[in-house]
Amino acid sequence: MTTPDLLKPYLFPKKILKFRENGSFKICCFSDLHQTSDYHPNTLAAMHGIIEKEQPDLVLLGGDLWNETPDATVEQLREFLDIFSAPMETRGIPWAHVYGNHDHDILMDRRLMQSVFESYPNCVSAHTEEGVDGVSNFLLPIRSSDDSRVAFAVWGLDTHNLSDRLKLRSGINLRAAHTAPDLPYGTSHWDFVHFNQLRWYYNTSEALEAYNGTPVDALMLMHAPILEFGICMKNPERTSLEGDALETLFSGSLNSGLFSTVLQRGDVRAIVSGHMHEDNFAADYCGVKLCFDGAIGFRGTDADIHRCARIFEINEQATETINTHLVYAKEVL
Ligand SMILES: [Fe+2]
Q1: Which of 106, 138, 159, 318 has the smallest C-beta neighbourhood within 10 Å, fewest atoms?
Q2: How far is the CA of 100 from the centre of ligand 1 (A)?
Q3: 224 C-alpha vs ligand 1 centroid, how far in Å?
Q4: How far does the centroid of ligand 1 lie from the alpha carbon of residue 157, in Å?
């Protein structure tokens, strides 16, 4: 069978991901490191410790890896990545990433920056081409243990930076979207997933199903959460919310329809976000798990007690059910 053009960049990443012989696949999500190469040692130690404890098959970095230093050079970015990719690179564990708003603190061409990430042997991120906004959008197929089909997928979507930076042809200033005095689920001035990204996800997902012969259940990674996380926070019992919801939601400033697109496509079983440092809950809304992975970056404050990562466990015989739990840094330090 010929491979549809849409799938070609993604079907065969430089490291093929596969369920284990026993049918299991484990994913570890770290977000919000907020470090430079002058870093808090507990951040790196926690990443090493959690990976050692959980032995994941894939690590996802959910953005805001970096902090400040706008004039950083490629050499400085590489120095930083040498340090923070080491927990995966030294163990040969594949890893992928999406950018967060603070990854825009570096005023470096996005594609140059992405090429530095993708130069690491175990980095399996694959950037989208022109016509799809953002750089860190990806599809990662995970093959069945017998290598006969794609059994699961991980999608990454870029949530950009501030919505003020978005230039609309209509000239509308998006400040209006986040300066109303009473917003239903918190306040925000962050950008959102754009229509051409939704179109890319929907069309690529359809192509994957057609190529594979069956629908492919999936996990979706993005940095800034969607507004539906706020519905879960307002309805914790209805949504079986478990974990911390301590911080007001700072989601994308407009509801650009990601959640309804995911429901209509019917393949994404869980969405995981970073961005919120003191929220780490998992909830169930309309049959989709909406999860935060907390933050793994230590700041040397009392809030460091919350530092954690989120684990997803999938079985190839029942990919519609994803089990998830948190691992706190304090368990491994
Ligand atoms: Fe963020």
Answers
A1: 318
A2: 5
A3: 6
A4: 14
Please indicate, yes or no, whether the overall pTM of this predicted structure exceeds 0.90: yes
Residues in CB range of 297: below 8 A, 6 or more apart = 32, 33, 34, 35, 40, 43, 64, 277, 307
Residue 273 identity? S
Instruction: Output the CA 299–ligand 1 centroid distance in Å.
Output: 15
State the Cα–Cα distance between residues 178 and 186, nearest whole angstrom. 9
Instruction: Give the number of other CB atoms < 10 A from CB of residue 199.
Output: 13
Taking only the tens place, the pLDDT of each residue in 293-327 is 999 999 989 889 999 999 999 999 999 999 999 99
In this structure, what token pair is assigned to residue 83?
């340090």
**Distance, CA of 66 to chain centre:** 15
Q: Which position has the token pair 């570890």?
A: 28
Say if CB 127 and CB 118 are below 8 A apart: yes
Average of per-residue pLDDT values in the chain: 93
CA–centroid distance, 217 to ligand 1, in Å, is: 27
Distance 279 CA to ligand 1 centre (A): 12
Q: How many Å is the Cα radius of gyration of the chain?
A: 19
Class of domain 17-331: alpha beta
Distance 223 CA to ligand 1 centre (A): 7
pLDDT tens digits along 196-222: 999 999 999 999 999 999 999 999 999
For residue 308, what are its two tokens?
């954690």
**Residues ≥6 apart with Cβ < 8 Å to 281:** 232, 233, 241, 242, 243, 244, 245, 291, 292
Token reading at 236: 């914790």
Does residue 128 contact residue 194 with C-beta atoms inside 8 Å?
no
